[in-house]
Amino acid sequence: MAKPSSAAPSVVDRMVALVPMKGALLQAGARLPVGWRSYAACRALTAISRRYPPDGGVLTSNMGIASGLRCRVSVRHPVAVFGRPDMLRGLRGPLALAAALCEESDAFLDVGAGLGWFTFYVRARCRTLLPVYAFEPDPARAERLIENIRANGLRFVHVFNDAVGARDGDESRHRVKTDTLVEGLAATFDQDTAAHGPSVTVRSLASLAGTLGFKAACARVDVAGAEYQFLQGAGDAFARVPFLLMAVQPPAHQRGFVPELMSRGGYQAYYVDDYRLEPSDDGAHRAREGQSYWLFCRLSPDALGRRLAHTRLAIGSGEARSVRRRP
Question: Looking at residues 90-101, what average pLDDT do you find?
């Protein structure tokens, strides 16, 4: 077990030092059943793990998704280790959307899979036979994702160590320097926030549509700054993606990415603000901190509202509903 810094201990440091059996406590906290996970417990366990990290910095956790799930996760992602997805305001609405919209889809694409939040969440909540295709360009993350999928015996989940961009081939990319829960590769970043990464294999959405053969997929996309490269490689594949859940970063939005994607795909756009979806006819919206996802689909607000009637999700400016999930 690693030792804390020799600097003068704070009040929190002194309190954490008094906690007995820290390693066992951290592992027990990582395996807490989903219903027992709380903000307070997550904060306390995070404080311990930062000062007394486990050997290797990795614990086995159910990620707050399903109590039977066992995934090896770095303590650098404390909400994934000790918390639940609904503690992440920027992800809980998109996660609920992905699960709801996969009910009538023939495949789920997780582009920029990262830790596998969406891959595991959809697999745990949707029909077993639904094929899930996860794309993660970072080799280490892709390998960990494959290991976790195999360890849990998940069926019909396929992981590709590929980026999804403008055209098929290998290219050198920039890698984001960040510890956020959802990370990806982008073509250009400021020197202060990015570093050259290894060459990665790139596939276009058009190529994937032909190879995988889906006809009505739900896709979740976070390419962290490479939105226009993704759009360039889509071709006519949007016809096969009736539901596209995409993180749009401010630079792309300022360049008019949302209306351009609407035009290219024949989509209606909805800005995802937590559990609320705000329709936008031209890409205009009132941005909220930490809320970068948009839903692109061909359903009117009324039709989408009916589709999501059994969920907590709501359309428009009203408060999200609190209802029980269908059995």
Answer: 96
Residue entry with tokens 């919209």: 101
| 165 vs 183: CA distance, rounded Å | 15
pTM here is: 0.85
Enumerate the β-bridge partners of residue 244: 219, 296
In this structure, are residues 87 and 42 in contact, taking their beta carbons and an 8 Å threshold?
Answer: yes
Taking CA atoms, 84 is separated from 38, 78, 209, 214, 297, in Å, by 8, 10, 32, 31, 28
Task: Compute how many other C-beta atoms are within 10 angstroms of the C-beta atom of residue 212.
Answer: 17
pLDDT in tens, 292-319: 999 999 999 999 999 999 999 999 864 4
Amino acid at 35: G
Q: d(Cα 213, Cα 66) in Å, to the nearest integer?
A: 30
How distant, in Å, are the alpha carbons of 109, 253, 260, 265 from that of 246? 11, 12, 14, 13
In angstroms, how far is the first alpha carbon of the chain from the final one? 44
Q: Which amino acid belongs to residue 82? A: F
Phi, psi values for residue 36, rounded to 5°: -95, -5
